[in-house]
Structure to design on (993 residues):
């Protein structure tokens, strides 16, 4: 039995009760939970395969050949199997490029619901949903060091994707740099796959250890602990491990050739053909942010995350977030969070009553709290150093897309730009196709440091759809509503506004009652 | 709560209108204090097409048509002075602009409007050419087959808006003006010596106050004995990924920035007050653009945004000096880019002199017969 | 820069800048290019800088190549297909039919 797989836009219903975005651990458990009820539901996956980033390629890899990926990876098979056994509609290779309150005619008499813009096989559609669970996960925190844009420099996550999805093992002089459990895990996996690693340059700040120690008991009791210890022991004994790295610089002509690094007061260098950087992951907030959900700064994890209640519900009615997209916690936490969000969504559309929901959620919430406590030690110990979040060298590129450098940003901050959006206006940083995913945190933290303010008060780039690439032609293929035609052409059938002129009484009448203030 | 002392000139609003006026004042030797809101304020300056457009402007209001012409004529000087002061080239391109008609009815409507403007201005408005589909195609190869025709005006142009904004801010800073963000104004109280301007941040005394606060002018103007009625007009724009130079002219359908991205517009919504973009609208905007230039269809849209135009009820600017408090002035318009030179070189010196001249009389809000605040 | 852990049973033929290459079924274009040692995938639109994949998961937009005539495709998001024509990019995307000044 498999889920009903959707391969063309015409197979999509115009509306669903619940749409789950993402098929990583949180999306898979949310979908499986939701599918147990008689409602119309859809799971949308950008990739062609389920598993997200954590369980990437899990349906394709041979457990024998890839045993070294570890038990934490392979336990994902159970999640995927349960997902496939549910009868939920599933649209792989489908991007979600917009999400917003629908704002017009009520859906099923229960409020207007949400509008979800999707793109599948080159066609765009606007779907409706009464509730959307965002499970879009996380991505690597940017690590803006000089030379980080050179070919051959990539993230540890990229190394994992290459290994899992294409069986690629780096060769030549391979250097990994950064800190955090995912980095050490990758080292372990690469060594097991036969890679030879020249060095691991560890940027962990030892001063964090005494701050992390009070959280050690919870950590030792958690699932993270023993795996972490075994991993680290193997890694430390197998590679050249340089501790206390406080500076990094990738150097080369047309590609990375050397990685310079500082320990103490000394700069050293090591030849490198491939450099993999890592200093943790951060929530992917694009859809939540562009839908108007309130975000808050998590100072423990140094990232923005959506403001959520116990059901994972955001500040926009009908949108909830689960998994690493809510707060970083790893796969085990994501699985629990997905189920919690699903139960919340089912209650909010009236399928579960509040008492039943609370009963089902209670044990999950206890698990969630235990996982969160276990995480604290890691979050504190592996807090990335200031120098790797706020570049000191003026020539370091901060916005990779528009090639805006740290020095330019500092000058614009000095000019008085009140926040990241005004800065974006002055310098174009954040205006490229990545829409600030790789520079937003850096910019916010640079402003916060420069102004001696809190990142929460500085804020973040305002995001607008499409949050995934969408061609003009695909966008144009959406149906034209009379209201939209009126707004663009001055006539509900299509005419022309040559320049914005006074709105005629006819125009006003045509759009009367259409939009509701937010 | 801070007391910022006294400033002879306070400009409320740090958008292109406010900073253009402030720069004009600074050029004349004074150092206005500029009060601006925060990072997420509604800012029409961040959400526009950056056209320096004259064709079709001022139907029924010949003084405005001529003001736009004058502004376009002054733009090269405005740009070169800004560059001389700041080193920033705002990429002014005045190679002419096209309005496209996708039906004969659209062509007729546009042509009639321009003929009327020409009559109303006694022939002094901008020259233009009405082009058939074939004639349009000769100048713009690859234009879509459903384009009925176009109207070309050699005086139209465009500028890099973001660099203009940055340049103006840099220019006023270099001339010693103070710019304070997160200083939104709650109230303005006329006093015997001028005005007391109060916000959550504290207060400042002003000798002269210039309201250039966009949408917020509507709330502030009555406090100083004026009215600035505005109607809601939300516009939406799409922007594509960077492309090699493709379209050097100005138009209201597409405008390519010097950095490569192509802006695509436009729309007007009277009822929405949400800042979120509307995807159905984006679809229609996209469709029209592809009808004009079919080769745009495979380009990726990198972002969309919305802006609320500063739109008085008849669509024409409001410039006024308060009668009850003659040291207060208001400037509100939706063509802040086109008119920037007028604001810097025309309006600012007259504010300095203490009296708005006859050229601004047709633009007072009294033309709406709106009851004055008491 | 990378080698394959397991030699593929079945390969697909594609070209990169005219050069005939092979990929395993299921490889993304980015992975296939990394596997054969391609260093720079493009030169950036702003500064002409050489760029290559950074994130391999669709958020960095540095792996852009032209695939079957369509520019600015994220190579990490597209699987290799038999006969695919892939080209590196240099500078901003060119639209057909530049309007003369």
């Amino acid at each position: 039995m498999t889920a009903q797989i959707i391969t063309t836009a015409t197979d999509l219903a115009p509306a669903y009760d619940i749409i789950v975005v993402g098929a990583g651990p949180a999306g898979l458990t949310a979908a499986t939970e939701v599918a147990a009820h008689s409602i119309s539901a859809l799971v949308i996956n950008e990739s062609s395969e389920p598993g997200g980033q954590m369980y990437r390629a899990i349906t394709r890899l041979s457990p024998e050949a890839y045993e070294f990926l570890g038990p934490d990876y392979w336990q994902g098979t159970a999640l995927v199997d349960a997902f496939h056994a549910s009868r939920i509609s599933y649209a792989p290779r489908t991007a979600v490029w917009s999400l917003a309150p629908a704002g017009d005619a009520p859906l099923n008499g229960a409020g207007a619901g949400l509008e979800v813009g999707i793109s599948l096989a080159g066609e765009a559609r606007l779907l409706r949903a009464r509730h959307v669970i965002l499970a879009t996960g996380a991505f690597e925190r940017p690590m803006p060091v000089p030379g980080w844009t050179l070919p051959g420099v990539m993230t540890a996550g990229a190394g994992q994707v290459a290994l899992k999805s294409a069986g690629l093992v780096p060769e030549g002089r391979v250097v990994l740099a950064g800190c955090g459990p995912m980095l050490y895990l990758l080292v372990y996996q690469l060594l097991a796959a036969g890679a030879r690693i020249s060095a691991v340059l560890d940027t962990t700040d030892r001063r964090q250890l005494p701050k992390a120690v009070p959280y050690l008991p919870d950590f030792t009791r958690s699932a993270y602990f023993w795996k972490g210890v075994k991993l680290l022991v193997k890694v430390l004994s197998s590679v050249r491990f340089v501790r206390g790295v406080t500076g990094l610089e990738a150097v080369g002509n047309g590609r990375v050739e050397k990685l310079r690094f500082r320990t103490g007061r000394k700069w050293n260098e090591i030849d490198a053909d491939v450099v993999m950087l890592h200093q943790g992951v951060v929530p992917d907030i694009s859809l939540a942010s562009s839908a108007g959900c309130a975000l808050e700064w998590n100072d423990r994890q140094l990232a923005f995350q959506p403001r959520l209640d116990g059901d994972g519900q955001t500040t926009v009615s009908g949108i909830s977030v689960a998994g690493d997209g809510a707060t970083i916690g790893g796969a085990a936490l994501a699985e629990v969070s997905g189920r919690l969000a699903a139960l919340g969504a089912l209650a909010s559309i009236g399928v579960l009553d509040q008492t039943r929901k609370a009963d089902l959620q209670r044990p999950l919430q206890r698990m969630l709290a235990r996982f969160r406590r276990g995480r604290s030690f890691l979050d504190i110990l592996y807090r990335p150093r200031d120098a790797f979040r706020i570049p000191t060298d003026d020539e370091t590129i901060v916005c990779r897309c528009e090639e805006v450098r740290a020095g330019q940003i500092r000058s614009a901050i000095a000019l008085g730009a009140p926040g990241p959006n005004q800065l974006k206006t002055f310098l174009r940083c954040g205006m490229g196709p990545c829409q600030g995913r790789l520079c937003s945190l850096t910019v916010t933290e640079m402003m916060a440091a420069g102004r001696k303010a809190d990142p929460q008060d500085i804020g973040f780039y305002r995001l607008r759809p499409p949050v995934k690439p969408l061609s003009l032609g695909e966008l144009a293929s959406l149906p034209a509503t009379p209201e939209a035609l009126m707004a663009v052409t001055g006539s509900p059938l299509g005419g022309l506004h040559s320049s914005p002129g006074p709105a005629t009484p006819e125009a006003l009448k045509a759009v009367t009652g259409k939009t509701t203030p937010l | 709560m801070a007391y910022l002392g006294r400033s002879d000139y306070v400009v409320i609003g740090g958008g292109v209108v406010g900073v253009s006026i402030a720069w004009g004042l600074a050029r004349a030797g004074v150092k206005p204090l500029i009060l601006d809101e925060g990072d997420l304020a509604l800012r029409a300056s961040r959400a526009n097409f950056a056209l320096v457009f004259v064709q079709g402007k001022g139907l029924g209001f010949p003084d405005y048509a001529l003001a736009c012409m004058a502004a376009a004529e002054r733009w090269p000087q405005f740009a070169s002075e800004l560059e001389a002061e700041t080193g920033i080239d705002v990429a002014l391109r005045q190679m002419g602009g096209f309005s496209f008609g996708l039906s004969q009815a659209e062509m007729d409507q546009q042509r009639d409007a321009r003929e009327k403007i020409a009559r109303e201005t006694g022939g002094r408005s901008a020259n233009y050419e009405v082009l058939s589909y074939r004639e349009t195609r000769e100048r713009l190869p690859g234009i879509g087959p459903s384009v009925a025709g176009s109207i070309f005006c050699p005086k139209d142009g465009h500028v890099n808006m973001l660099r203009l904004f940055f340049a103006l801010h840099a220019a006023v800073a270099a001339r010693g003006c103070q710019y304070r963000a997160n200083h939104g104004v709650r109230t303005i109280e006329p006093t015997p010596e001028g005005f007391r301007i109060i916000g959550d941040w504290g207060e400042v005394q002003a000798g002269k106050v210039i309201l250039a606060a966009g949408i917020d002018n509507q709330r502030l103007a009555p406090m100083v004995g004026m009215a600035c009625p505005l109607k809601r007009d939300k516009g939406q724009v799409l922007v594509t990924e960077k492309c090699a130079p493709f379209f050097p002219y100005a138009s209201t359908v597409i405008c390519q920035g010097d950095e490569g991205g192509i802006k695509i517009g436009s729309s007007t919504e009277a009822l929405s007050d949400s800042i979120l973009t509307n995807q159905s609208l984006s679809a229609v905007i996209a469709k029209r653009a592809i009808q004009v230039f079919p080769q745009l269809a495979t380009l990726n849209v990198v972002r969309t945004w919305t802006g609320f135009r500063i739109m008085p009820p008849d669509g024409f600017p409001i410039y006024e000096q308060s009668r009850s408090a003659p040291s207060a002035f208001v400037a509100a318009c939706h063509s802040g880019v086109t008119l920037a030179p007028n604001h810097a070189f025309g309006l600012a010196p007259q504010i300095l002199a203490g009296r708005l001249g006859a050229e601004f009389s047709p633009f007072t809000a009294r033309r709406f017969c709106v009851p004055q605040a008491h | 820069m990378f080698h394959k852990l397991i030699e593929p049973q079945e390969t697909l033929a594609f070209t990169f800048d005219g050069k005939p290459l092979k990929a395993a079924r299921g490889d993304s274009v980015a992975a296939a290019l990394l596997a054969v040692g391609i260093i720079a995938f493009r030169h950036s639109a702003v500064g002409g800088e050489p760029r290559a994949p950074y994130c391999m998961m669709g958020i960095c937009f540095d792996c852009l190549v032209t695939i079957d005539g369509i520019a600015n495709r994220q190579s990490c998001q597209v699987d290799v297909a038999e006969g695919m024509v892939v080209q590196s990019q240099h500078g901003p995307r060119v639209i057909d039919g530049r309007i003369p000044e």
Q: What stands out?
A: Residues 97-153 of chain B form one domain.
